[in-house]
Amino acid sequence: MTGRIEDVIVVDWTSHYPQDVEYTAEHSHPAVRGGCVAAFGIEEDGRERLVIVAELDHAFDGDTDAVAAAVRGAVSEEHWIDVHEVVFIAVRTVPKTSSGKIRRGESRGRYLDGTLDVRYAPAEPGRATATGARRGAFVRLTRPPGTRWLPEWVPGGCPGTCGTSLGPG
To answer: Given this model, what pLDDT does residue 38 score?
Structure first.
């Protein structure tokens, strides 16, 4: 067992450990403070969706949209999950235990009841995918590390009706 079962995030029938997603988000952009990211799932429209709450470095005075896009892109590329919402909160406000562990349940509760000290949140949460395209738009697919291209591992290859390029290049 590598984590607590109540913390596991299940998106589209795939389980993800929040600490793995948090690590990816922390390393996606230099402005994200290490050890100050909480990843958790919320129920919306009958589906679990991923929310990331993070602190930005106190000296950061740049484009928060670019940081959010970096977080979305890194999580999408590494874990194949669309991030529903990235929320940046005030420095030293992510809930932690006395030993410094992230309190994901409290972060989730404060997100849901609106008591986080939010410094940035997108106007339309969850509307953009990790690639920046609107939902329903076709995006160029990439392959997960260590796998071969789709036509090689799906019997019969791609039928040509998916609307995207699936080959290398």
So the answer is: 96
